[in-house]
Write a structure and sequence with these properties.
Largest sheet: 7 strands, antiparallel
Order of helices and strands: HHHHEHEEEEHEEEEEHEEEEEEHEEEHEE
Number of domains: 2
Shape: globular
Strand content: 25-35%
Number of helices: 9
Structural class: alpha+beta
Oligomer: single chain
Strand order of the largest sheet: 2-3-16-15-17-12-13
Distance between the termini: 101 Å
Length: 356
């Protein structure tokens, strides 16, 4: 009898010990979660760079602007915007400063000049330079014949369905292509019409409303990159515009970078830009990133890198999930997870190096 009682007491002790251990583990777990929550709260609300990154990045996305107001009050959002913005260059592009001479050189002023000007063996069309930019990987493409850089668009403008950059590029027999301007979204995933003007071969093929102050990113019939704040009607009549789309901001004008305060107001994100050097070489810049918008480049990062490689005029293009570089019929950059699910986001236009 005593032996049975002893076994029962021993069993009871073991059960109580297990319960205590379980409670102890749960206590540690909840304490850890509390510490994490407090740490996240401190980071989100009191670490200025992180707070600025969340607000500016969220507000520049097409479908996640609400995130800025989930974490912060309207007053705090406004304060962040007041300390993160850009000031555009207050002068017109002087195309006379662009003197097209893209021949290879024997001597180079810097390693960046050598990377741009020294051709890959057997390829006089383009060269891809892998770069580190912001906290991500980027791809700078030098295109040696600016006369072959043309607008590409989805097959039928004005319809709801967009087209992937790779499909547009292949349809144009493009060799190297990037996405271009913005678009109206009806389902949050790249379905809709272009925002602003689209010009092809000197004709306006899309216009979402006359705008005398449009940010036009254009190629002229003289094969020069024109950045102008004007209507497409005036640009065609007065500036010899061949192809154009509407987007921005303009990052560099006549060799002068725009002024950025903080992160420039656009946060950190995958990005795309088009630029031209004084010798006429066109550059495409595409930057990788992640779905959380914590990787990628700021506008300042884009400007700094393009200046190193001699950009004389440069403009920002649509980034985020749209960021795409197509080379020889294949997607060259790392697509964001959302875009990767479908093989690329649906967009409406872009720029491409086309066959002669």
């Amino acid at each position: 009898m005593n032996e049975e009682l002893s076994k029962s007491e021993e069993f009871t002790k073991k059960v109580k010990t297990k319960k205590k251990k379980k409670i102890y583990k749960l206590t540690i777990l909840f304490a850890f979660l509390d510490i994490c929550a407090i740490a996240c709260f401190i980071v989100v609300y009191f670490v200025t760079p992180f707070r600025d990154m969340i607000v500016t990045t969220a507000l520049r996305t097409m479908s996640h602007k609400y995130l800025a107001y989930v974490f912060y009050s309207e007053n705090m959002v406004n304060k962040v915007l007041e300390s993160n913005y850009y000031v555009p260059v207050d002068e017109d592009v002087d195309l006379d400063q662009i003197v097209i001479d893209t021949s290879d050189k024997q001597h180079y002023d810097s390693i960046y000049e050598e990377q741009i000007l020294k051709r890959d063996p057997g390829n006089d069309d383009y060269k891809i330079i892998d770069v580190e930019i912001g906290n991500s990987k980027g791809y700078l493409v030098a295109i040696y014949d600016p006369s072959r850089v043309h607008l590409i668009t989805k097959e039928v403008l004005g319809t709801k369905l967009g087209e992937k950059t790779i499909d547009m590029c292949n349809r144009y027999n493009g060799i190297v292509c990037i996405n271009g301007g913005g678009f109206l979204e009806e389902d949050g995933w790249g379905i809709g019409s272009p925002i602003g003007y689209v010009v092809n071969d000197g004709k306006i093929i899309w216009n979402s409303g006359y705008n005398p102050n449009a940010n036009l990113i254009a190629m002229t019939y003289d094969n020069k990159l024109l950045l102008t704040v004007d209507s497409a009607e005036n640009a065609i009549a007065n500036s010899n515009v061949r192809d154009a789309l509407e987007f921005g901001p303009f990052l560099i004008v006549n060799g002068t970078p725009m002024t950025t305060v903080g992160d420039g107001g656009y946060g950190r994100s995958p990005r795309v830009a088009i630029a031209q050097r004084k010798d006429g070489i066109i550059m495409f810049l595409v930057v990788d990133g992640s779905a959380l918008y914590v990787d990628g480049a700021t506008l300042t990062d884009m400007i700094d890198l393009l200046m190193l490689y001699g950009a004389h005029n440069a403009a920002n293009l649509d980034g985020g999930n749209s960021s795409t570089l197509i080379v020889e019929g294949e997607t060259y950059n790392k697509l964001m997870p959302n875009a990767a699910k479908t093989g690329g986001r649906y967009v409406v236009n872009g720029w491409g190096l086309l066959p002669k």
